[in-house]
Amino acid sequence: MDPPVSSGPEEPDRHGPSGPLDHAERAEYERLRLVLGTRHRRLRLCGASLLLTLAVLLAPVSVVATWINSEVTDVDRYEQTVSPLARDPAVQDLMIDRVTDGLVENIDARKITDGLADALADRDAPRFLVDAARSLDEQLKGGLTTGVRYAVEKVVTSDAFAQAWDAIHRGAHTAATNVLTGEGGGALEVRGDTITLNVGTVIEELQEQLIGVTLVEAADVPGADKSIVLVRNDNLSEARDAARWLGVVGPWLPLAVVVLAGLGIWAAPSRRVALMAGGIGVAIMMCGLLVGLAVMRQIFLDAVTPVAQSQDASAAVYDTLVRFLRQAILTALLTALLTVIAGYFYGRGRGAAAVRSAAARSTESAGHALARTGLTTGAVGQWLRTNQRLTTGAVIGAGGLTLFLWNYPTPASVALLLLLVVVVLVILNVLAAADGSEQHSQR
């Protein structure tokens, strides 16, 4: 049987390779690839933007929640917060005034002068002397006020008072949530719509000493219900509810912020730009939080009641209570700014490239000088040179992890960690340059 006769050139298999693409097909292929790449890039950009936005918005909430949680759960931190109040001159003056008033109010000067007049009358003293004794009540009260104030001032400004203040708050840390949650009964309490300063608990601790220096009866010493109303505000209940909620989520929010930011940077088309954008966003939020603290301070002082009669004391109370929060905000702000700066120096800008080049030349020169003295690093240096990206990332990551795990980081601790990271990176680069490769190349 004869083989079939071919009628022309063999047609290519429709389902097999069709050979090189012609100009039109390649143009269509590039167009489709560009469309798919653009869509993929847009999806990544949208996802990264959403994650970074959530991280930036949660950052200030995380700082506040962590501060509240530390005050509620850490007795040492709480003691460090309230301890300066007993040593602040404005707060001491307020307590001296209120305790003195409470003591003098409990002393019946009229009863004392009447008793003196009756005693004189029983001894047949002249009438004018008896009448003069009865009219001494105001002078007696003024003298008692001066004497009692001196005695109370001596007690309140003493080291024993400050130690008693610290002991009360440390021994009764169930009151650590007094201002934040309205629970407990420490020196600072929230009662309905008022913030009060309770001086009776501290005075009771020093009752014997106070009685000894003032010559008043124990019944005249203010009890545990002796309080000074500092602030009255109708929104305290809402603030207390928010504080309870923040205290619960406090331990988890920082981790959530870090995870969201990390995922956002990982998903972004340009991770360096995403890192800088996240840092700028957090820095802006921290600045806003600092402004909010300043505004709240003014609102707090405007709400000072006439009963307190001391804006200085109220300002001291506010500044003392939020000083660790302000410190945490400044720490987060500094960290965010350093993140932005680091992202810039890893970029392609002329300034960043010049700085990197100068640093590389300096470490190379130092390493070569070390090698010329005979101190070469050999295989270790070669490994460091080959894995420079890995070691740099590991050092920076270790610094960031240390900062994250630091109990209560401060701007000073951030600066210290930054210095350590830079020093370690410089040492590693010098060791990498001292591997002896320069000497071998010269030979």
From TrEMBL:
Keywords: Membrane, Transmembrane, Transmembrane helix
Species assigned in the record: Streptomyces sp. NBC_00180
Comp. bias intervals (Basic and acidic residues): 11-24
Name assigned to this protein: Integral membrane protein
Transmembrane segments: 43-68, 245-266, 273-296, 328-347, 390-408, 414-434
Ranges where the record places region Disordered: 1-24
Superkingdom of the organism of origin: Bacteria
